[in-house]
Amino acid sequence: MKIELGNFKNKIKILQKIKTKDSLGSPVEVDQVLKTCWAQQIDVAGSEDEEGKVRAIYDSAFIIKYDIRLANGKAIGMLVKDEAEREFSIESIIEVEFRKFLRINAVKSE
């Protein structure tokens, strides 16, 4: 798959959970926007082989420009929110080209 910036047509938000306190001083976790960027969204269809084994374990993949804050497993557990306000949990991030692009593999949050 050739990555071209012209295919980055979806605006996404990458959310991280931070610990803070509510108005009464109790600790709570809230989602905070770490990054808003353009991405190429690739919907992945699940499939099974002849033995019934699932071959796709991700619902969607997002190709974005490289960001050191997300590389090397730092984004595992964060969320991606697409233009349709659907949330996806980040399962893995793969560096596609050295310090050029990242592929975020994500599963739809329920």
TrEMBL record:
Domain of life: Bacteria
Protein name, as recorded: Head-tail adaptor protein
Annotated organism of origin: Polaribacter haliotis
High-level lineage: Bacteria, Pseudomonadati, Bacteroidota, Flavobacteriia, Flavobacteriales
